[in-house]
Amino acid sequence: MMGIRGVGIDIVSMSRFEKVYAKHGQRLIAEYFAEEEQSMPIASLAARFAAKEAVKKALNTPSILFKNIVIGSPAREAKIVGQEFQGRVWVSISHEKDNAVAIAIWEAD
Asked: Other CB atoms closer than 10 Å to residue 2's CB: what's the count?
């Protein structure tokens, strides 16, 4: 029977994320986002960054690379690329004005 194995939450300041993007540009995008995420608008990238942080917290696995956590569109489930894990990771993202927040729930046997 599937049960909740972990929960993670994160919040990102979009203005701070934009400043980091302005400084690091494509290097930031290439390091943290999967190819299918890289062309998204900056607000969507900030929200997905929060979701990736939440996924890492839910899985309690800091060794997973950010770009190997792929947040679907619409954001409902995260895929983990290149690493074995059991179960599913559900995500929910919201953003309002300067903040993006995400929660991740890891469900497994």
From this structure: 10
Whether the predicted model's global pTM rises above the 0.90 cut:
yes
Positive or negative: CA dihedral 24, 25, 26, 29: positive
User: Dihedral sign, CA of 14, 19, 25, 27?
Assistant: negative
Q: Quick: pLDDT tens for 42-72.
A: 999 999 999 999 999 999 988 899 999 999 8
Q: Tokens standing for 80?
A: 């983990």
The domains located in the chain, with CATH, are 3-108 (3.90.470.20)
Q: Using an 8 Å Cβ cutoff, are 56 and 102 in contact?
A: no
